[in-house]
Amino acid sequence: VKHMLAASVGEVIPFSLVQFPLWESLKALWSWRQDHVVDSWQSAVCGAFAGGFAAVVTTPLDVAKTRIMLAKAGSVTASGNVLSALHGVWQTQGLAGLFAGVFPRMAAISLGGFIFLGGYDQTRSLLLRLGRESP
């Protein structure tokens, strides 16, 4: 169980380190180009792109996590070593194996980024407006 947790955290942290700064950078660029703060729907579009990109670049980590989680108890892969799992996939399946499932993962996470980050931005805007209106 601790190996599965470590593999999951080892995927989520790099994903977040790519997604959130990219989302903020895309919003800042769009805001600069139109000379005003992005609307919530624009933030959602930025979230979709950021999530999709993060999904693509972290797919090998997701593949390794999945291999570790499904590994037979006592096997080398079950030890939870992400680099070892990645190396095993590379040796047996090459680059295609490291990016197995990349398109469905990218599509699902892009949709999630659109909904979650757009919803977050909409809620944040609403709360800021309410805070300014209260006495």
TrEMBL record:
Pfam families: Mito_carr. It comes from Equus asinus (Donkey). This is Mitochondrial S-adenosylmethionine carrier protein. Keywords: Membrane, Repeat, Transmembrane, Transmembrane helix, Transport. Solcar repeats lie at residues 38-126. GO terms for cellular component: membrane. It is found in: Membrane. It is a multi-pass membrane protein. The chain crosses the membrane at residues 96-120. InterPro entries: MCP_dom_sf (IPR023395), MCP_transmembrane (IPR018108). Mitochondrial S-adenosyl-L-methionine/S-adenosyl-L-homocysteine antiporter. Mediates the exchange of cytosolic S-adenosyl-L-methionine, the predominant methyl-group donor for macromolecule methylation processes, for mitochondrial S-adenosylhomocysteine(SAH), a by-product of methylation reactions. Signal peptide: none annotated. It catalyses: S-adenosyl-L-homocysteine(out) + S-adenosyl-L-methionine(in) = S-adenosyl-L-homocysteine(in) + S-adenosyl-L-methionine(out). Belongs to the mitochondrial carrier (TC 2.A.29) family. It comes from the Eukaryota.
